Amino acid sequence: MENQNPKIFIPGHKRMVGLPIWRLLEEKGNSKLIGRSSRELDLRKQCAVTRFFEQEKPEIVIDSAAKVGAIWANQEYPYTLLMENLQIQNNLIEASHHFGCENLYF
Ligand SMILES: NC(=O)c1ccc[n+]([C@@H]2O[C@H](COP(=O)([O-])OP(=O)(O)OC[C@H]3O[C@@H](n4cnc5c(N)ncnc54)[C@H](OP(=O)(O)O)[C@@H]3O)[C@@H](O)[C@H]2O)c1
Predict the structure, then answer these.
(1) Domain boundary assignment for the chain
(2) pLDDT tens-digit series, residues 44-79
(3) Is the per-residue pLDDT at 1 higher than 70?
(4) Position in ligand 1 atom list of the atom nearest CA 19
(5) Rg for the chain (alpha carbons), in Å?
(6) Ligand 1 center to residue 2 CA distance, Å?
(7) Is 14 in the pocket of ligand 1 (CB under 6 A)?
(8) Closest ligand 1 atom to Cα of 15
(9) Less crowded by CB within 10 Å, the N or C end of the chain?
(10) Cα–Cα distance between 25 and 70 in angstroms, integer?
(11) pTM
């Protein structure tokens, strides 16, 4: 039978996109939601992300974390925004693959 209460990691869980996802899943009765602030887990750091997946072994990842800027920031800091977001995504993709998490949503 399909797992009705999977362990779900929601990067960016306290902010604009992640928080409503967290609340919706909580309302639906999921009791195994995992969230970390960027201070607790900097997703740009591959070693930290690997260690986190090793410990927590999430079954589902819903990525809503990103370095976000307005039009001004995108024009002013294109390299920083692009690189940080690629680092975040790549680390999540790599760790999900490595630790057998088959459901990664972006
Ligand atoms: N808002 C919208 O209307 C909208 C619409 C479509 C798509 N999106 C996309 O959805 C994503 C999130 O947008 P948002 O509006 O929710 O942004 P946001 O409110 O600025 O939230 C960004 C989240 O990402 C986390 N984060 C950033 N850098 C991190 C890092 N190095 N390590 C760990 N966590 C990190 C932040 O954590 P901390 O707060 O702990 O630092 C925060 O929770 C972006 O890709 C955006 O383009 C947003």
Answers:
(1) 8-105
(2) 999 999 999 999 999 999 999 999 998 999 999 999
(3) no
(4) 16
(5) 14
(6) 30
(7) yes
(8) 19
(9) N
(10) 29
(11) 0.95
